[in-house]
Amino acid sequence: MGTVISTCQTKLPPHLLDTAHAERMTPERLAARIAAGTVVVPQNILRRDTSHITPPAIGEGCRIKVNVNIGTSASRCDPDFEYQKACAALDNGADAIMDLSTAGDLKSIRASVRSLDTTLGTVPIYEAVRRAGNIADLDADLLFSVIREHCKEGVDFLTLHCGVNLEVLESLRSDPRTMGVVSRGGVFHTALMITTGLENPLWSEFDYLLEILAEYEVTLSLGDGMRPGCHDDATRHAKTVEYLNLGRLAGRSLEAGVQRMIEGPGHIPPDQVGYNVSMMKELSRNAPLYLLGPLVTDIGAGYDHVVGAIGAVMACAHGADFLCMVSPSEHLALPDITDIIEGTRVFALAAHIGDLYRNLPDAKEREMEMGLARSTLDWERQFSCALFPEIARSIHSRDDAEDTCSMCGDLCAIKMLQKVL
User: Concatenated DSSP letters for 235-281?
Assistant: First the structure.
């Protein structure tokens, strides 16, 4: 039966036993959570015999996972560069890669990233619009054809903006927003509805979409097409109407045996993070929640990776499960490799802090180990406990410090106390 587990099934498919072990969870418990829809394990059925990775579990009781977006644009189309960025992300703690390419040979770019043997996500409407030439010429047949192609290539999860419907469009008109629609997928579907006067095909033909995804056991990531692009838009109606839609679609997906997760808002003031996470969890019956950031201030340009990581920790405290990395170049430029590395590292740290909120044994044990290493000035042990050992080692050694750090030197509190005791 594969990864799709019915609500009455409690036996875990053999290919997910390693996943249960990695989460320090019994196979029965993981199976029950997948069946209930509170955990997803994205892995296309076509990759089951060819992938050498343990597919990540995302959701209730699991380690917080990190996704990193890469992809070409019309301004900078260098597939080799994007491949290097994907490698850098995986080397620095990413659990999944999303290819958001919009220029070049898109199929070839996906194949290149897929060769890294990592969990892979895409946004098919980007390619569908490119093939159509413009949004006015995009129709349902082409969109569903591209979706099926991505599934047949082995993509593990797809971001699809199914909740952007005519009701959402009306909410945009009746309650205008400062930045309108900032999600590219959200803009495409909004423009398509305005141009044709017809409903979003992903909403009106959702059952057909589920049939395609079920055939390949691809996980549906219900995209947040109405995510706020600035704090002023965080309380506008469009976002909330889409939340309600995504909650309904999450229920239909679960009934159809299709794994699904919910994508959350972008720019949210800090006092609204907990409320938004809780509302999305409630409306979707505790479906895994996949967040971009959120960005808890709009004025951190150049440091939006830090802003996003702060928001991510706040979201994890309220139940977020999957973090989409924000890079230092967010809102400014296409990320380079340095941006990818820095962004991935701070989000890996945010994910670890999220694991501490969940009281996960691995995270707690690592913290205890670091405390013991510092109490004995055991530097090698400290480096091994650090999330990024080589960075810690290089900083410690730059002033030729040995048994203490160069900040305290001979006035090291730990060293002096050791002598006294």
Answer: TSHHHHHHHHHHHHHHHHHHHTT--EEEE--SB--HHHHHHHHHHHH
